[in-house]
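Allow me, if you will, to draw on your knowledge of protein folds for a short while. I have a record of one protein: its chain in single-letter code and its fold written as discrete structure tokens. Kindly check, if you would, that the fold set down in the tokens agrees with what the sequence suggests. Thank you for your consideration; the sequence and its tokens are set out here:
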Amino acid sequence: MNEIYEFLKKCGAYYLATADGDQPRVRPFGTIDLFDGKLTIQTGKSKEVSRQIHANPKIEICAFNGAEWIRVEAVAKEDPRVAAQEHMLNAYPELKAMYRAGDGNTEIFALESGKVTVASFTAAPKTVLF
């Protein structure tokens, strides 16, 4: 988990894919945290991405660091604990202008039942299940 977290953290931004009915939706995201041994992401409950994840929790993340890219396939499960929200907001203090732990809008999703593939143009892909 630490290697996946570090890869995504160093990229700064990654792309999160969800399903909206039969239409895929992809958007840039920037929050990634490691809480209780699980990768977590953050959004607001008022956003479409939240509605899409609740309707279909299968998500994918893709990021590129200039030499390698990572693809994370996972099931996003809401972690409603205020401690998870606080941990994320402490990792990204700039979000505190828009979100507060326990505000009813801040939402944390833990990534579970996943598969990670790291690939490049010069080496065979590496795959890990979590």
Summary: The CA atoms of residues 10 and 65 lie 8 Å apart.
